[in-house]
Here is the input.
Amino acid sequence: MMPAFSHPIFITKPMLPPLSQLSSGMERVYQSGNVTNMGPMHQELELELRAVLGGHNLVLYNNGTIALMAALQALDLPPGSEVITTPFSFAATTHSIKAVGLQPVFADIEPEHLTLDPVEVRKKITDRTRCILAVHVYGFPCRLDELAAIAAEHDLRLIYDAAHAFAATVGGRSIADFGDASVFSFHATKLFNTIEGGAVSTGSLERYDRLKNYRNFGIIDEDTVDSVGLNGKMSEVHALFGLLNLRTYQQELSRRRDVRAIYTEELSPVRQVHIPDYPACVGGSYQYFPIRIEQFRDVIYHELKRFNVFSRRYFYPLIADFKPYRHLAPLDSLPEARKAAQDVLCLPFYGDLADGTARSIAHLVRSIIDRHAR
Ligand SMILES: Cc1ncc(COP(=O)(O)O)c(C=O)c1O
Here is the structure.
């Protein structure tokens, strides 16, 4: 029996810049005395991210949840309008809809990449539907063409929660090229992080102004506040982390590609394990390494902890089963999402995970399955 790892291995390890770079950057912050309110680091990071994410208008926020709320409120929809969304995501996706006074409506996901199923979306459209909020879950791009066609046909806005899809590409195009707006999270758990942070990227100039105003209490100038807003500003210190991490995220991405290859080599021969893969035209974001395991998901999750390995059952429980949303979806609805919530396991996944450690984790998963399958 393999011994437990001497230190805990968590689902991710945030990419952090070298302390020496951070301290020289902090000297600049101290010298300027400018620590927040869209200062120079903030402006520099917005420009750099804009270039990385496809060149559209880009607005930084203090986290991805506020960025989601900003993207939705910028649509200026009538209160209570219905937003069709996926139940298979992180809580923030649905919470953001409620938080801006709109009504979430869940549609089921498709079984291979676990993103919103366009066929199910069509079934949920009513005369109150105004928007689709789809998620590139685990960085797997949604069915972009089909969702765009539905949105055009029914005059709906289309927002993508791209929290897991930083720098992903589809057919060589940035993931931010699709829909009315794309929303990113730069939380410490994300491939590219500013510790806490987020952004909205949009091609629309009109929405760009609304997105900026919402971030700063609706303030237009010293004399004018003309809309409801909040404090969505990223501080200079967080922006500094972002500027430094932008220098190295591509190395992190390529290391994650290697770790993914090791896990795939070790686990794809296992009959009970299915590894969803990126379609050929997709440049992956390598945000997570999800596997689907028939039957033994929870056993593996618990037994791995005994070896000091902390995998995550993202996304269990399903958002549709959270107390505030339970009444929206009966237990016999959303079958694919419910199945995924029961069988997906995300293994520890980050650039600093040594090859040997990834191999050992995969061996552990195999041996747990072997033992229980007997
Ligand atoms: C799919 C998804 N959307 C939104 C968010 C919210 O982002 P933040 O934590 O930056 O508020 C997250 C996660 O953290 C997420 O995973």
